[in-house]
TrEMBL record:
Keywords: Hydrolase, Metal-binding, Metalloprotease, Protease, Signal, Zinc. This is Aminopeptidase N. It comes from Micromonospora pisi. The lineage of its organism: Bacteria, Bacillati, Actinomycetota, Actinomycetes, Micromonosporales. PROSITE patterns: PROKAR_LIPOPROTEIN. One of its GO terms (biological process) is proteolysis. Residues 1-21 form the signal peptide. Its cofactor is Zn(2+).
Amino acid sequence: MRRAVLLAVALPALLVTGCAAKPPTTSPSANADAPTSPPTPTVPAVDYSPWQAGRSLPVADPIYPARGTDALDVLHYGLALDWSPSTSVLAGTATLRIRPTKDAASFSLDFMPYQVDTVTVDGATATGTVTKEKLTVSTAVTADKPITLVVGYHGKPVTTPMPSKRADTEPLGLTLTKDGSLWTMQEPFGALTWYPSNDQPSDKALYDIAVTVPAGWSAIASGTPAGQDGNTFRYQSVDPVATYLTTLAIGKYKQVTATGPHGIPLSYWYRPGTDDKILPWLKESPKYLTWLEKRFGPYPFPTAGAVIVPSESAMETQQMVTIGSGIAKMGREAFDADLLHEYTHQWFGNTVTPTSWRDLWLNEGWATYIQRLYEQEVYKFSDADLERSLREGDAQLRKKLGPPGSPRAANFAESNVYICPAAMLKELNDALGDEKFFALARDWVQDQKNTQQDRASFIAFVNKQTGKDFTKLIDTWLDSKSTPK
């Protein structure tokens, strides 16, 4: 996510309440008094091995425990979506390949109260009820026995509040604009606003997304472009993706293609007449990717690119960065820094994802420090200036927001989880020297590709790679109420 203003004064933390409860919507189910129905056809056994790359070890998130579940591991999402701007109705069929991790009489996923039209489990009709942003399916499941859930639904997209006081805070999830366009940013959650999901970072999955739109419109999603059939746009993710890193944008877009380092296909999506000024800035992407590859190894995915949306923020959505046009108002330098920051996340946050939101610092600390190193190289400020800037920011942010290792639920992704861990990485860099530090960073993202990690695994990796014990340094910077000496 884009870096918050460096020393912005944090407003008092406020509890964020959810949307008002809506009447539950229920899928059709069998009537016990109805005449006997014909027997359910036998459904052929499904081979789940093609989706094993989407296997995760989900955990209950300690910061947002109401989102996601550790009882399910979604291996694959197959999303077939149809958008009608004239009626503001999104119709979808979501096919989820799920590995239950526990025996249970029913199971639940995060989902907005769309009208649920059909629910089946392994081909058999099931009862699915949506209430309080949860879809509960009344079908028993067995640990490690995969199932196929298919949900048909339709309705008008509705966002969910973001638990933060950032200057660029906006509602989360699928956002409807006045002209009938759609766009989404959804960190720490919000995928639930357009498909049933295990909406937490510890459950990464594979994706196939197909979106049908009116003639003259385009649909852009995360993943690798997989072709276009008439007005249906297709995308596929063969590397696992956390739900917050998926994206969807629909509108009257135009595409520009390019090539990145060693032939990486790039796509830039913009709205003619609205984003023309920004397009040349996006075309600098190969420069940023080349700079990052030189330090952290090969770009981790098959394709890259960016889509411009009418937002004040930006997100590192996987393979297709989502950039808010509002950032351009801050000038070219700010836009360039944000774009570099989001591309950095493809390594630090996307291919290596935090297990829970307690370790958001693993994403933002790395991306912020790397961004500052890039700025130092471009604008020629000294190492002492960088040190002073990080420490001054750290001191103010710890006092206002607390240490980065214990983020507050009501202050998601505020500046303490950016600047404070960046200052810690500066100390680690100074202790190791550039050669060993960049070797450590490169090995971290390349050796842990497509995994979820946390503080303990990071410390263990640092200590093993360096042959020195940096536990105290890292823990002190993550937990201290004041800037460490």
